[in-house]
Amino acid sequence: MPTVDFAIGIGGEAGQGIATPGDILARIFARRGLNLNAYNAYQSIIRGGHTFLTIRCGNGPVRSMGDKLDVLIPLNQDTMDRHLKLLRAGACVIFDGDKLKPGPAAEGVQICAMPMKQLCGANKLGANTVAVAAVLQMLGIEFQPLEDVLSRQFKKKGEAVIAENVNVARAGYEFAAKNFKAFPFKAPNLGKGMAVLTGNQAIAMGGVAAGVKFYAAYPMSPSTGVLMWMAAHARQLGIMVRQVEDEIGVMNMVIGAAHAGCRAMCATSGGGFALMTEAVGMAGMIETPVVCVDVQRAGPATGVPTKTEQGDLWQALGAGQGDYPRIIVAPSTQLDLFNSIPELFNLCDKYQCPGLVLSDLLISEGTASVNPDDLNFKAKIERGDIIFPNGNGNGNGNGEGANAFSGYNDNAYLRYKNTESGISPRAVPGVPGHIYVAATDEHDEDGTLISDEFTNPAKRRMMVEKRARKMETVVNQITPPKLVGPDNAMVTLVGWGSTEGVIREAVEKLASEEGVVANQLHIKWIVPFHVEEITRILSRSKRIIIVENNYSGQFARYLRSETGIAAHGHVRKYDGEPFMPHHIVNAVKEQLAGATNLSVPTHEIYV
Amino acid sequence: MSTVTVVEEAPKQAAQLTKDSYKGKIHPDWCPGCGDFSVLSALQAALFELGLKPNQVLVVSGIGCSSNLPGFINTYGMHTLHGRSLAVATGAKLANHELKVICTGGDGDGYGIGGNHFVHTMRRNIDLTYIVMDNQIYGLTTGQVSPTSVKGMKTKSSPHGSVENPINPMPMAIVGGATYVARGFSGKQKHLVELIKGAIMHPGFALVDVFSPCVTYNKDNTYQWFTPRVKALEDQGHDPTDFRAAMDKAFMWGDEIPIGLFWKRTDLPSLEDLEPVLHEGGPLAYRELGITDEQAKAVIKELL
Lengths: 607, 304
Known about the structure:
The structure holds two protein chains of two kinds. Chain A is of the alpha/beta class. In chain A, the strands form four sheets. In chain A, strands 6-5-4-1-3-2-14-7 form an eight-stranded mixed beta sheet, with helices on both faces. Chain A has a seven-stranded mixed beta sheet with strand order 9-8-10-11-13-12-21, sandwiched between helices. Chain A has a six-stranded mixed beta sheet with strand order 18-20-19-22-23-24, sandwiched between helices. By secondary structure, chain B is of the alpha/beta class. An eight-stranded mixed beta sheet of chain B has the order 3-2-4-5-7-6-9-8, with helices on both faces. Chain B has a single domain, classed as Thiamin diphosphate (ThDP)-binding fold, Pyr/PP domains (Rossmann fold, 3-Layer(aba) Sandwich), CATH 3.40.50. The mean pLDDT of chain B is 95. Chains A and B meet through strand 7, helix 7, strand 8, helix 8 and helix 9 of A and strand 1, strand 3, helix 2, helix 4 and helix 10 of B.
């Protein structure tokens, strides 16, 4: 049983420096081996507004930002006014006593005013560090780890700056020891340090593990982190990274690179993905493997750029005109994102089709700790039937070799050969004797257009079926979803993508606090869909409730369209903020009581 | 399962290159008399004269009459989406910078729907050759006004005469960052071959805009209209390194319309030159996938 589970909230205006103390705390906790989940609620503004970072830690699994705050660090009065009233007994608020006034607080909330002017001296930016030091002291963490992290943080600014910050931190640490009541628990040190990463970093690193050599993007929140990581590491890792004029250009460029033989990837958000979709269809038509990540945000149109939503499911399902095979996956955690990218690339290479990843702001910008040993950069790489030229004299020219020497007008190679599997060996440009045209017009097996002079219904049918046939076996290559929890539960909670963790916590809370036995079925692979397994599991469920971060129940509709199963109830949230466990717990309770079959939880915190 | 086949080049058995080596499987389905026939022939002649093997060349087009060209030439080809040839070609070129990548298309494809890519591809100075078969009309959609249709031109979508100013691709390319800017005419094929050869061998972004008359839908800008007007810059002692002279010539239109090489500079690095990732290790597309253990360790260390 986990013994420690605490959450810290830091809030203020954008530009007040919330990220730095957040990073410092996250790093210190992760280095102690604690599990961690952090979520930053912010707005589309560079200076001003209200930004609120929640860091939750524990020695058990930490799957969401949780329901409660133990420490509030308001950097301005607005944050104090918004959040203090939500603190419960045992929590504390740490703030600049010279500047901020605490309002009414619940009984048992420790009010920790710090004389910042006195503690910081000349260091005007030191207040955040002082507050961090105080928190660490109250959590029973020794001073040294903070000194280490500060040294790292200010390394580039020189020894003097490091010393100044360490001194200020020490003053805060000592003041807290003298004046504040420590927490009844101590944050343990579990020995093995954890790695801390955002989902966007995980996506980029997953691309690296997959062997991505070409990455292109147009900046768009909340996907930009992928571009920034890739750009920062491009030269070190030998990756071509381009910022392109628009997302149309991005996807077309990625397809060009993939067609030429690179593993190529891009990430965007829903608006950018909308621009890409015609080209996604091109990848389907010319059978080029590409991977595109849609980091969903609240839409439609510009929507709420800094808020989360699972609103692009049907956009992904319907991306591009016409019928063509694609693979769609919705990973549920940062580590899952990391692992899913190489897996998807292998499938796309094998089946020569586009692969789409549905992430969202919650997990892409959210931070989690992972065991560094789990970040496997030696992922299995399978490139399917692909023909390369021999640039360095080491090739053996097996199989297709005979074609290579028969001259330049060779007709033996059929790029789009109508095979039993639907998969046709793919030559990349440059190979002798395999010349063909990859055309977005419907084409014959050799790439010749059948759309212009004489259309040919039989050939058209053959090619549609050839491409479609590829998808028949994909479902056998991926892991079906599993039911978590007791078989005989009163209710089955179904979700997809980023909500797995919070639903799991809700299931646990229902059992431990409400006496409600629930189980969970979480879906990761959207296309292909494990119709058989899902139908078998859900047909035994007493009550199915679908939890998703959108208005219309996009997944509920998809489940029904694929399996004919209509859920008994729905929990939907579309206010831009992610679910908290209690939202789901309360919704299940009200639905079990027969009050409703559609719950729309209210987000209590105004962030 | 993974079947990565590697095909060896065997120089002894390789066929001798002839002009026919570049002949495509399909006879062009352009209207008889279309200017694009001449552009296709000129491109094939240029490739032959440069001795480029068909498998070392990738021709990328968009959509439209002229964009059907990859099907009619024996090189690797991509027949992409309307307006997107430059973006696709950029990706392909960066993935395999040893390929000669040539984009072909029309004025609507390149200057209309693909205008954004055109502007940005030029400023990158990537080593691509872009041949625009400019017929000043939308042909495949049966005759609508195009971005290069002259003001006043009557088409099916401008029945009272176009009131918009046309794009002039020459000055646009010169100031846009293209480092080889030329204009040819389908009626002067030999001249065009030289322009295309120069463009292919130029280590940067090269635009060859070609007056390629649409004999079906453009009754204004015909062979008969162009022939007496076009004057080769090469016959006039034009210095293509002289920016002002190039701009003066680029704006000429009317009784005398210059064709030839307007502008060329070789003092600027190409995008490939500026990308250290391409400097060693050959084409990205052929490199081994994955990273070393040391690189992986360094990446993970950043997270600890």
